[in-house]
């Protein structure tokens, strides 16, 4: 991966973190299943209202758009593992 893509991904991840941190959540990077995938575990331990946060599919849609916009690569996808879906 080139340095400019790394920087672009870092900017996208920062943007995604800002999106969820306002509600007290955090996204932890986990191992992707393939090269053009970013996987995050949604950490809700510091959140006051888990139901106030967007559902994982919507967060993943927004995050995927951010990654694609920052990298210029429409092949990237984002997966968010949400503990609310296990409940």
What would you say this structure looks like, in words?
Helix content is 40%, strand content 20%. The chain has two helices and three strands. It has 87 residues and is α+β, with helices and mostly antiparallel strands. The longest helix is centred in the first third of the chain and has 19 residues, at 3-21. It has helices spanning 3-21, 56-71; strands at residues 26-30, 37-43, 77-81. A three-stranded mixed β-sheet has the order 1-2-3.
List the topology elements.
Layout: H1 3-21, E1 26-30, E2 37-43, H2 56-71, E3 77-81
Helix pairs in contact: 1-2
How many distinct helices?
2
Q: Compute the number of strand runs.
A: 3
> Briefly, what CATH class?
Alpha Beta
**Architecture, CATH level 2?**
2-Layer Sandwich
Question: Gist?
Answer:
By secondary structure, this protein is of the alpha+beta class. It has helices at 3-21, 56-71, and strands at 26-30, 37-43, 77-81. The chain has a single domain (3-85), classed as Alpha-Beta Plaits.
Give descriptors for this structure:
Alpha-Beta Plaits, 3-stranded mixed sheet, 2 helices, 40% helix
